[in-house]
Amino acid sequence: IKPSDVKGAWVPLPPIDEQRRIAEVLRSVDEAIAANKALVDADGDGDVGALLRMKAALMADLLSGRVRVST
Q1: DSSP symbols for 12-70
Q2: Per-residue confidence (pLDDT) for residue 63, from 0 to 100
Q3: Residue 52: CA atoms inside 13 Å, Cβ hemisphere, count?
Q4: In terms of Cα–Cα distance, which of 42, 58, 24 is closest to 50?
Q5: Is the pLDDT of residue 37 over 80?
Q6: Distance CA 41, CA 48 (A)
Q7: Residues 6+ apart with CB under 8 A from 33
Q8: pTM for the model
C-alpha cells in the first residue's frame, strides 16, 4: 500500500472522550494480562497465548462497537 492509495480516505473516529474510555479499558486489560503473565511465569503453568487471544478478542469487540464502554 502506498500513501497515494489511502490519501484522502476518510477514517471515522469516535469522539475524544470515547477514545479515552477505550484507551482506559485497554490499559486495564493490559495490566490484567501483565499480572496474569507474571503469575504464569512465576509458577510455570498456564497459557499466555490464551490471554493474548482474549485481549485481541476484547479489542476487536470494543473497536467494532459490539461492546460499548460506559462511564
Answers
A1: ----HHHHHHHHHHHHHHHHHHHHHHHHHHHHS-S-HHHHHHHHHHHHHHHHHTSS---
A2: 85
A3: 5
A4: 58
A5: no
A6: 9
A7: 51, 52, 54, 55
A8: 0.49
